[in-house]
Design goal:
The chain contains 13 helices and no strands. By secondary structure, the protein is an all-alpha fold. The chain has one domain (27-260): Up-down Bundle (Glycerol uptake facilitator protein).
């Protein structure tokens, strides 16, 4: 990216700038009419992630899979799964559709950027709805293709459920890893030197979390991702954890970012901003595509 970052604003200047970006209030119909492509791209993004997760989980854990038989060690399997899903997340973020929608693919991410004033309310609502729908369709597609190999234990619809340490530990773990992801996103996307690497950093965190944290909570960080597996599999154990922990952790990252950074304003809600793709957010970049 060649654009210079905006100068830091004081509290009143930052508020004025956010109001200027916001423009007139957006209606639901106006959001659908103007931004429906981005909503569909968000559905595609999480749907693609779930298809990849379902295929690789079946490959690594279904007892009849040759790879599962060749790699009996659970830690090694999780490392391979983490590598596959980290690469999947990175490719989605850097894909043309990911660059255009911002590649949130997670209601907790969208909620955090909405709280920061970077996403209009109706855009946030439709983003979240699209993420839930896309994730569910992705799981149903894998189920239609792989059947019982995907549905039965140990794959079990790739459901995220609390581990043996219980609900409290799982909630804490989801909060901590979600905090880590959003803190990275805020620091990276608002740095001229680091922002182009945000997708790589996100992929590395996903790989690390799956390898090390998955036994504790299933490594969700994403209410829509958890719901997508829970609904068809009727696997509701600790569902509330994944609706509380990820948003809580990501929202907590905001005051920490603002306290530690000298220029705490957030430029845009995209994980990978590219000026060749339009931006529907309250964007701080000077050169933006038309809305």
């Amino acid at each position: 990216m060649s654009q210079a970052l905006p100068a830091a604003d004081g509290p009143m200047e930052g508020m004025t700038r956010r109001r200027a970006h916001a423009g007139p209030a957006q209606s639901a119909l106006d959001g659908l009419r103007r931004h429906w492509p981005e909503y569909l791209m968000e559905a595609w993004g999480l749907g693609t992630f779930m298809v990849s997760a379902g295929l690789f989980a079946t490959l690594f854990w279904y007892p009849g899979s040759p790879l599962a038989q060749a790699v009996p060690d659970g830690m090694a399997r999780r490392a391979l799964m983490g590598l596959a899903m980290g690469l999947t997340a990175t490719l989605i973020i850097y894909s043309p559709w990911g660059q255009r929608s911002g590649a949130h693919i997670n209601p907790a991410v969208t909620l955090t950027f909405w709280r920061l004033g970077k996403v209009a309310t109706w855009d946030a609502i439709f983003y979240v709805a699209a993420q839930f729908l896309g994730g569910l369709l992705g799981v149903l597609l894998v189920l239609a293709v792989l059947g019982l190999a995907f549905a039965n234990p140990p794959v079990s619809y790739i459901a995220t459920v609390p581990g043996a340490d219980g609900l409290g530990v799982a909630l804490l773990a989801e909060t901590v890893i979600s905090f880590g992801l959003m803190a990275m996103v805020l620091f990276a996307t608002n740095s001229a030197r680091l922002m182009r690497f945000t997708g790589v950093f996100a992929g590395c965190l996903v790989a690390l979390y799956i390898t090390l944290e998955a036994p504790v909570s299933g490594m969700s960080m994403n209410p829509a991702r958890t719901f997508a597996s829970a609904l068809p599999g009727h696997l509701w154990t600790g569902l509330w954890i994944y609706f509380v922990g990820p948003p809580l952790g990501m929202l907590l990252a905001v005051p920490v970012y603002r306290a530690l950074r000298r220029t705490p304003e957030v430029i845009c809600a995209k994980l990978n901003h590219h000026t060749h793709h339009r931006c529907i957010f309250h964007c701080g970049y000077g050169a933006r595509a038309g809305r």
